[in-house]
Amino acid sequence: MRLLHVSDIHFTYPQCEGETDSDLIYRQHLIQHAQAQSATLGPVEGVLFTGDIAYCGRKEEFDAAKTWLAELCKAVGCDVDRVFVVPGNHDVNRGVYNAVLSVKNAAQAIASAGAPQKQEKALQAALQDDVAGAYLLQPIEAYNEFAAAYGCHITPKLPFWNRYLDLPHGVRLSLRGMTSTLISGFKVPENRRDLHLGVFQAQLHPAPGVLHLGMAHHPIEWMSDAEEMRRRLEGEPALLLFGHEHEQRVSLNMNGKALTVSAGAVNPERRELGWRPGYNFLEFSVDDCGETMAVTARIRQFEWGYEPNGFKPKIQGSGSDFIDHTFVVKSAPKTKNAASIFEPGGTNGADQDAVERDTGLGELDMAKSETGNIIYRFWKMPRSQRKAAMVSLGVLASDAPVVNEPEWSASRKVVRYLS
User: Domain for residue 396, yes or no?
Assistant: First the structure.
C-alpha cells in the first residue's frame, strides 16, 4: 500500500482563484512529481492531509483545495474519496472569534481553566453541551463542509474520526484523525502548550492485526496535555503524522513502538528561515511471522530543490533516500472476520455502541471503495437534495436546519444505510 502525506498548503483567497498565485508552480510540480513516483512505485491508495488546507478558513480556499486534490488524485491513480483530512490553525476562521463573543468565551474558558486535568474537564463539559459545543466548532464551519465530502467532518459529540484500510495478510491500518484546533484561533500568536487536544482523542485501542496511524495538525508538544497524549499515542505500535512546523523529520520514540513523521509544508511562508516546500510518500509491506506480523513502513521524503527546479529526494542520515521502520503487531485470529475484531471507535470515553447511537456510524470501512464513493457523491449534492434524502430516510426531521450538527450526524446514518 502506498499513501501520500501532504500538509500546510495554505490556499489563500483571492490569489488561489487565479493565475496570480505565486505558489501555484509548487503545487503543479508536486502533482507531476507524485505522478512520476506512483508510475514507478505503484498507484497511491490514499492521501493524508494534516491540516492548514486553507489560510484564513474561507470557503473559497477550501473550494480551491478540493479542485487541486481532485487533480492530485487523478495523477497518482487514487480515488478522490480516499482523501483523509484534519484541520489546522489556518483552517480556523479567526474572524468568528471577533464577531461572536460567545464563541471566543467558549474557547477561552477551556484555555484558562488551569491545569491540563481541569482543561480536560472543561472541554468535555463544553462538547457535551449543545450550545457550547456548537460554539467551539463554529470557527471551522467552512472546513467541516469541505471535510464532509471525504467523510472526515466532526461534531461536538465526536470531534475525531476513525477509518481503516486493508494491508496484506489480514492486517488493518487504523486511521485516527484528531482535531488539535478545538480552542485554536482566539489567541494570536499561539505558542507551545497553548492548545488542548483532549486525551479521549488520543486513545488507540489495542487489537490484534491492527497497526495504528494517528494524524493531527499540531505536534504533541503544542498541547497542554502533551504528557498524557504521548503516553497514549506512543504506547501502541503506531505511525504518527503531524504538520504545522513546516519541517520534515522522522523520529522513533524511546520504547521503539511509535514512529513520528513530521511533514514539510507544501507552501511554507516565504519569510521562514530554511524555506523549502516538501511532502512525504509512505509505503507499507507486511511479512507473516506466524503469531506476529512485521509491518514495514518506508518513508520517502521529498523537498524542493533547484537546478533543475523540482522536488528531489531528501537524503537521510544513513545516506539513503528513504527510512524503513518495522512495527510488530499481533496476528489477528484466523477464524474471525477482521471487522469483528477491529477496535471500537469510542467517543469521549464511550463504547462503540454509544458512538453508533449518537452518530449512526462507528468505524467506516474505507477498504470498501463504495463507502468512500457514497460519501463523496452525497456531499456533492446541493443542500436541498441532501436534506430531502435524509428526510426521506427518516434520519432528519423535515423542519431541521441544515449545515450544522444535526446534518453531520444524520448524514452518517445515510452512509451506513446505503453502504
Answer: no
Write the pLDDT tens digit of every residue in 1-37: 999 999 999 999 999 988 889 999 999 999 999 999 9
Q: What is the pLDDT of residues 258-305, one digit of tens each?
A: 999 998 899 998 888 778 999 999 999 999 999 999 999 999 999 999
- Residue among 83, 85, 3, 84 at smallest CA distance from 43: 3
Domain assignment of residue 30, yes or no: yes
- Closest of 135, 155, 173, 187 to residue 46, by C-alpha: 173
Residue 98 grid cell: 471577533
Query: Which residues, including other chains, have CB under 8 Å from residue 369's CB and lie 6 or more apart?
Result: 79, 81, 82
On whether residue 212 sits in a domain, the answer given is: yes
Enclosing domain of residue 166: 2-375
The per-residue pLDDT for range 102-113, each reduced to its tens digit, is: 999 999 999 999
Contact 376, 149 (CB under 8 A): yes
Alpha-carbon distances, residue 57 vs 102, 139, 161, 246, 328 (angstroms): 19, 8, 20, 19, 40
Instruction: State CA 216 to chain mean position distance.
Output: 6
